[in-house]
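Honest question from a wet-lab person: if I give you the sequences of every part of a complex, can you actually get the arrangement of the whole thing, not just the pieces? Trying it with mine:
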Amino acid sequence: MVKTGVPRLDDLLGGDIPKGKSLVYYIQPGVEGEIFGLQTIYTTLIKSGNGVFIASSTSPAVVREQFREFGWNVEPFKKKLTFVDAYNSLIGVPSEEKYAVLKPDNIENFNEIIIKLLQESPPSTIVFGSLSTIMDLCGEKETIEAVRSWNKIAMLYDHVIVYNFTAWPYSEETLDLIKNELFNAVISVGGIAERVIFGQYFGILKADWTEKIRKSMLFRVFRPGGIKLFIPKIVVTGPFNAGKSTFVHSLSNRAISVDRLGTTIAIDHGHVDYKGFSADIFGTPGQERFDPIIKLISGEAMGIFLVVDSTNPEDFVRAKQMLKITKSYGLPFIILANKQDLPGALKPEEIKKLFNLPDDVQVLPVTASNKTGVYEAFEVLIDKITGGI
Amino acid sequence: MSDFMFGIEELDNAIGDIKKGSNIMIIGPPMSGKEIILNHIMYYGAVKNDNAVIKVTTRHPASHVFEWFEENNRALPLSKIGIIDCITKTIGKEAVEAEHIKIASSPVDLTGIGVKISQFFEEFFMKKKLPKIQLHIDSLSTLMMYSNIQTVFRFLHVFTGRIKAAGALGVYLVEDGMHDEKDIVTLKQLFDGMVEVKLENDINFVRVVGLSSKPTQWFEFEINGAEIKILGEKVNGKNRRSQT
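Yes, you can. This is the full assembly:
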């Protein structure tokens, strides 16, 4: 069983990729998708599996360097990581790898080397760095036929075979075969475009071993770090002096506040990287005179933290009012019962009763000043935002 | 002032505006001065027209590109420049990315080159709020050398489309005489116009086709460092030099 190592994708795939299966990352041109194959092979290696990388658009040396850029040290896995060099002969450089395709524009030569490797290797995760490059050099039909036979042999030898494929404007027939027929699973990796591409997402188009979940996840690529799910906006709101700024600062890796006389008058902004997630956090002011700003800040939010002071139930009416202002009833939100370390703090269950909220609304205990419960709260909200998978 | 210009007065006057979203091929034989024309368009765009310029270099490392401008006393505003270096890694040299340099793994790696182009577009358009962007590819001939015409066509099909969508300008260099005429005709389908450069008896000529109702005259030009100076026009097969 193989994991992709991409946050949430493994959950969407039912936990992992079963042996013998094939998977393609179907990548929109211009989107940083080839890292999906790299992250899959690296995850295999650190989980004691064997990996094979077919380098067709650049040399194995450059691929090793790419691993380093992502902070993934593959040196300890020298014996478990094999490269097929299908690049160097294109530029007339001799290969130092055990497996080399000497005529990368000849599908027969490719077939010979790949089939030999599939038969000789122990069960491995085989990643094709760029199937589109092979298709460009060897032809669409020829490559498709080869892929059919590689997938079959991989199944017989218990490999998991993974392809990065950039969906250039090939023939409709080719694109249709790739999306619908050739592989057990298809992961679409695309870009959100409005004049330029400004966001990237992935989602499952097909996975024949698990129920398909129609969900797209935004992601960003970090060097080092690899793929992290990206939540562009989480809003932290709540009454005056509930501890919103403290919460933003204690959750964030970096944060800044616009304060006057010790209270937030415009915005708190923080960024959090945690367990494969990357999120921008925006805190609103609490005083009523700033309500118009709260509306502005809350636009396009993906989730809301409502922070309340557990020792000050008088402010709960105001807190409910603020939820309405942020229009959060349609959005995933949780209530943070802050200042749990202070005497007289109400328990989350008591606060829930006072709020008279539906059962599925969670009230979580936190003490933002010493970070108690803040990351747990973050995880719960992320689960809600990403559908709880 | 128009958003996009060649920065060569006589050519700009002859064609009027270059429309937003245009894709232009510069084609000419080796040593005819077309690279210098491309560099001139880059410099003019960034310095005089306040545009962001992305240059994909498949023949010279990014450091050489900057050296050329320095040697010719052309200071580039780095915040508006993005170079995609496709060669340094191929020749086995260490390559480090910087704010204005991105490294693609090889000229074969069109996927990687495409990603870097998109990243610079996002950076200029979304983060730096520079809406006028020029994409220069120097050169398509090298890309075709490492792959083939269909592959480069597919790549260009995507990115000429993006240029149109973004209201940007794309300028692409092609070596004349290096490819089948058939291939050039195939590529031409993707472009709105061409800058043709030729050499006759050691005299350089340039003209623009497709960006105005009819092709411009051939202009005789000379190169002085980084400067392109138009000396005259060729009318009815005869050179007429301007009185200066």
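Two things worth pointing out. DSSP finds seven helices and eleven strands in chain B. Chain B has a mean pLDDT of 94.
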